[in-house]
Amino acid sequence: MGEESHETSVALTILAHICGWIYFTAWTISFYPQLISNYHAKSTEGLSITFAVFNLIGFIALAQYDIIRYGVQLRYDLPQAVEIQDVCFAVHAAVLCIICCLQFIHYDSGWRERVTRRTWIMSVVLIVAGMAHLLLVEMGVIPLTHYPDMDNSSYLTSAWSFTNFCGALKLGITLFKYLPQIVLNFERQMTNGLAIWTFNLDCVGGIFSLIQNGVESINHRNSAYITGNLPKVGIGLVGLTYNAIILGQHYYLYREQNFEAKRIGGEDTMSGKLTTGDDGVDCLL
């Protein structure tokens, strides 16, 4: 059941570790601008509570996925598709998302009114679905996690697992969470008000996250270093795609409008001031 023995390159091993810590640092730092901004302004205005809620659910799911998969890898000597950096990042991100949601409660007395019925319903459905999956694991219907080399014959089915659900949930949230920001930028024809370094760092993290898995796969001659952590790969690819669009809007499409808005000091008085709409459009600062 263990990983096949291959002679690995010391240089590639070091490169993989460097890429891992670069992506971890970039993605980790990208969470702080919004928290700091909320603290200084003593307000959460401009940030969608819908984004904050689903970001929290997504990173809790990712943290569970990474912790379980990493533990199983160590126990059964499987390819390290989930690295220690993945675990640290996911847990840290979940904690920061909790802090962000607490800021809504502390700074915004009307936060309940800002949570749409759609958000409440979707949140409850996702939480119940997660609890249902854990119940199925306890009942022996599905395994906690699944690897091709693992013997899950004691379960009714091994084609789906709790970690499959967690990974799919996080990837699904990532697929739609950037869309409101892209639409908002288009409607305003500018990106003023965005903490653009959030997207720069998100882009850097995505690039080095994918490079790390690719290097590990080459170094060990084993594609499981990629296929064994598809949520991370998917999140990296989806994030890069959306970040490229937002960065293109900021640095190319709306460059002149951004410059003009700053020149006249209209960032706070423009008609397109960042607000949260009924559909939970978020600014992703």
Can you summarize the main beta sheet? none
Structural class of the helix and strand makeup? mainly alpha
Report the uncertain regions. 266-285
Order of helices and strands: HHHHHHHHHHHH
Count of individual helical segments: 12
Average of pLDDT: 80
* Straight-line N-to-C gap: 45 Å
| Shape field | globular
The beta-strand count equals 0
Name the beta content range.
under 5%
Helix content: 55-70%
Return Rg in Å.
Answer: 21 Å
Number of structural domains: 1
GO molecular function: L-cystine transmembrane transporter activity
InterPro entries: LC_transporter, PQ-loop_rpt
Keywords: Membrane, Repeat, Transmembrane, Transmembrane helix, Transport
Membrane topology: Multi-pass membrane protein
Walk me through what this model shows:
- With 285 residues, this protein is mainly α.
- The protein has one domain.
- It is 69% helix and 0% strand.
- Helix 7 packs parallel to helix 11.
- The longest helix has 28 residues.
- It comes from Gregarina niphandrodes.
Compose a concise summary of this entry.
By secondary structure, the protein is mainly alpha-helical. Helices cover 69% and strands 0% of the residues.
